[in-house]
Automatic annotation (TrEMBL), chain A:
<protein>
    <submittedName>
        <fullName>ABC transporter substrate-binding protein</fullName>
    </submittedName>
</protein>
<dbReference type="InterPro" id="IPR050490">
    <property type="entry name" value="Bact_solute-bd_prot1"/>
</dbReference>
<keyword id="KW-0732">Signal</keyword>
<feature type="signal peptide">
    <location>
        <begin position="1"/>
        <end position="26"/>
    </location>
</feature>
<dbReference type="InterPro" id="IPR006059">
    <property type="entry name" value="SBP"/>
</dbReference>
<dbReference type="Pfam" id="PF01547">
    <property type="entry name" value="SBP_bac_1"/>
</dbReference>
From TrEMBL, chain B:
<dbReference type="Pfam" id="PF00528">
    <property type="entry name" value="BPD_transp_1"/>
</dbReference>
<protein>
    <submittedName>
        <fullName>Carbohydrate ABC transporter permease</fullName>
    </submittedName>
</protein>
<keyword id="KW-0472">Membrane</keyword>
<feature type="domain" description="ABC transmembrane type-1">
    <location>
        <begin position="88"/>
        <end position="304"/>
    </location>
</feature>
<comment type="similarity">
    <text>Belongs to the binding-protein-dependent transport system permease family.</text>
</comment>
<keyword id="KW-0813">Transport</keyword>
<keyword id="KW-1133">Transmembrane helix</keyword>
<dbReference type="InterPro" id="IPR000515">
    <property type="entry name" value="MetI-like"/>
</dbReference>
<feature type="transmembrane region" description="Helical">
    <location>
        <begin position="92"/>
        <end position="113"/>
    </location>
</feature>
Amino acid sequence: MTMRASRLKRVIGAVTAAATVAFVAACGSGDSGDTASDGSVTLEFAQWWGAELPAGEFDKIVSDFTAQNPTIKIKLLSAPYDATKQQLVTGAASKTLPDVVGLDGAWVNDFAKQGAITDLSKLMTDANYDSGQLASQVQVDGKTYMIPVVNFVYPLFVNKDLLAKAGVAKVPTTRTEFLDAAKKISASGGDVKGWALPLDTAVPNGVQNDVMSWLWASGGSMLQDGKPNLQSAPVKSTVEYVKSLNDAGVIAPGSLTMKEQDKVEKFTNGQVGMMIDSLAHINLIKKNKPGLKFEVAALPAEDTYTGKRGIPYASWGIGISNSTKHKAEAFKFVSYLLGQETNAKLSTIANGFPGNKNAKPDFSGSDPMFKTAFDIYQQGYPANEFVGLAKSEDLMRSFDEQLQLVLTGKSSVDDALAKAQESWSSVID
Amino acid sequence: MTSLMASKAAAPVEQAAPPKKKTLARRLVPYGYLSPTAILIVVLMVVPIVMVISYSFRDNVIVQENPVFAGFANYTKVLTDPDFLIAIKNTAIFISVSMVAHLLLGLAFAMMLNTPLLGGVTKAVFRIVYILPWLFTIAVIAVIWRLLLDPSGVVNYVLHSLGLIQDGVNWLGDPGKALWVVTFINIWSGYPFFMISLLAGLQGIPGDLYEAAAVDGTNWLQRFRHVTLPQLRPVIISMAVLDLIWTSQQFALIWLTTGGGPLHATEMLSTYTYKQAFSEYEFSTASAAAVIVLLLTMVLAFFYVRQQRER
């Protein structure tokens, strides 16, 4: 009896040990993109789009694809933007990216240099794909690594009630008019301020959306021949303008640690009269404050500027992992999402603008402001110089820190720009 | 006696007779039982730590296929980076002030909950109220305090209504205040754990010690100094060291409230390391910073282990 019990114990011990080893080995051998016994391929697609679209909508678009292509299955890995970013950064580092990945233009350079995402130019050639239908492509060293599927522009949002209360009849179109309107709104009483400037350094995209947008709206550039050019007159005038808004006391307090969502919340609550924000937030604002009267407009430019206005944008970009075994199938899925019909449908439900030039989003069921924004978009040009730059978040953060020094009176505009230029030059070679 | 000794000595000789194979299998059995734990410790602790240490001695790890050995270059870079030195200073202030405040508040509340002056129901109500901050997750705490401390938020409204301030105070956005404000939030969220542990300690002090002290003619303060504190000493020391270690790893609260800003005013070792890795993609310097943090934490862990052994 004792013998049997001890043998049993030994067997249990050995089985537990073997199971643990098997479990640990299984943990380490996770491989995306498997071919099933029936020859069908499963592609993993990590993105944050599903989380931002109305529930179930993205699944429908994907299931249409799998219905047309029974040999390809798509497994959606949907998570919020920040979580997706972290997952992809670690996945890129360990070369375990899912087969198809949602990309932000700001990540492309780093992922491409790490060899984590594949050269799409080659896949387009192999598949005889007509790249002429694409509105834009994000390239590194002349090769395409990301294709924007849906673009979201960042126009100026204006609270009509606050503007009227402050006695401003017309939505500002120049910097002088904007400063004047912001001053009047701030003077109209209560805690209301003219403008919100989120400069939180945890996610420093305020530099792109709320600061550099002023530069691009006047046709300026922060780069010259791909190199940083932060000490140029247009950049200096932009920073001086932001400083003048700060000196005039028209910026909502707390901007140094303000996040993008705080900005939207303050605008929604009528605490700020104007903000530069993603068009994607129109529905959110309307849902949270149904009675708020607001409209979108082109970003104000320098008083003498008459050229086309750059309008900042963010994209839902797409790329393919370099380590996937099923690049052709992955590209088939990418070209489906960029197809004229699917792309129009996706843009419509996402309230964005299509990545396929020929796709026409259907504005009939959406807010008229989207039509206005589409007109602004077509009259100007999409501008976001951070797309495709190396370590773009780091560039934004170092610029952010210098701007904070300027706004707190600890540095002059010239010194801050010289330091930012030095810092950027060490990153962009 | 001699025969007993002889029979005892003979026994192993008899048992040694079975084949060698069986002895080996039997000897391996304990390792079989230990192996699940041992494998998990190796895979989840030893391997990552060794990898991070090896990364810290190489250049451009992860982002490049073939990183080269860089000696102590990453350590030199980190230790001469002014932002890292600020992060060390901020972390030291953050953890030491938090620990002292956790201890004082925890002890004060624990003594209030242990007093015989209050009834059972009152104590139960206060116990729930005092423990509430500990029940929220850090993300919720960060959101609540960001809303409360907004320049046009509740805190400023109350202070303004009471006539204590004239203009809205920029609590988290002012470089001069941000560190103290995040420390305050951390104190608020962390004191209940001290309170619970110290309350358990207080309830374990035998009543006859107080009675003996009372017979000796001591007053309340003397009993606190000569009975309560010495009895709580092991709990206090353990909690203090553990709190220093835990608070030094606080990342989520800082990241969600200030992100290390404004102007590095709340930059901690954790946020610095995160930015190095996931924003600058400098995994080598991030690893070097992580190893330095590991060494500093090990010093604290050493005191903790020594104190535990003394007990």
